Amino acid sequence: MIRLPILALLLSLPSVLPAAERPNVLVVLADDLGYSDLGCYGGEIATPHLDALAEGGLRFKQFYNGARCCPTRAQLMTGLYAHQTGIGHMIIADFDIVEPSNLNRQQYFIDQIGLPKVYALRDTLVRINPHVRVTACHLRLTAANIAEVLGHAQILAEAFDLAEQKVMLVEAFAARFPDRPIVTGSGMAGYGPSNNVQTRQVAANLYLCGDGTTAAAPGTGLMAPRVGIAAHHQANAVLRLLLGQDPAVENS
């Protein structure tokens, strides 16, 4: 018969504790800080204040980190692993299959010829990082199904070949999700100067990576070096958007 009063008393204890007895926790998030950069971990950089804290506290010897700053912030804010918060969730959609001509410029392997591109790419990404969540949609994107297929995408990275497909995807996505950024590519064929490939903002929430003019044609094909430069421009633009920075503006 006395369990209920005791339980009520225990439940009420946290609310009556004085503020001074509550945990006093300070979390410091440092970008680009290596494990051995701190003096208390054998680093050559002088970090006397952090060393003093380590001397009077605890030091982790076995632990995991978020590897990059944006997933680390997401983990601290939510208490979840980065791939559970949405950082690291990718949606890839295409109807095409892997062909021999793709091997010279796209991330596929000879044993993946004949496979749907989205499944082959998903398998490769999961091999690189098993914690990345990839939703592979083997279908043809149309203006009618874009909202359903890409509804959870906060940033769209466009990588179609045909100009009319690019226009359809960009216009349909922008009309349905006007506040979400789009990173598109145009002008990456041939072997022209690398520095002609740039990232530019061409409209509100629309960024174009490439030289904007050089299309595939006889004698000016799509080849890995220049396609790779444009693709890395797109990847860096997406990363900057995730970090809250403008992809087309140089940092001072």
Structure description:
- The chain has helices at residues 3-16, 48-55, 69-78, 82-85, 117-128, 146-149, 163-176, 224-242; strands at 89-94, 133-138, 156-157, 182-185, 198-203, 206-210.
- It is an alpha/beta fold and 252 residues long.
- The chain folds into 3 domains: 18-63, no CATH class; 68-140, no CATH class; 153-252, no CATH class.
- The protein has a 4-stranded mixed β-sheet, sandwiched between helices.
- A hairpin with a 2-residue loop joins β5 (198-203) and β6 (206-210).
- The radius of gyration is 25 Å and the shape is elongated.
- The termini are far apart.
How would you summarize what this structure contains?
This protein is α/β, with parallel strands linked by helices and 252 residues long.
Features:
3 domains; alpha/beta; 6 strands; 8 helices; 34% helix; 252 residues
Portion of residues in beta strands equals 5-15%
Q: Describe the biggest sheet?
A: 4 strands, mixed
Name the helix and strand elements from N-terminus to C-terminus, one letter apiece: HHHHEHEHEHEEEH
**Bulk shape:** elongated
Span between termini: 70 Å
Strand order of the largest sheet: 3-4-6-5
Class per helix and strand makeup = alpha/beta
How large is the count of helical segments? 8
Average pLDDT metric: 84
Q: How many domain regions?
A: 3
Unreliable stretches, pLDDT < 50, 5 or more residues? 1-14
Radius of gyration using CA atoms only: 25 Å
Helix content: 25-40%
Number of strands: 6
Architecture blueprint of SSEs:
Elements: H1 3-16, H2 48-55, H3 69-78, H4 82-85, E1 89-94, H5 117-128, E2 133-138, H6 146-149, E3 156-157, H7 163-176, E4 182-185, E5 198-203, E6 206-210, H8 224-242
Parallel strand pairs: 1-2, 3-4, 4-6
Antiparallel strand pairs: 5-6
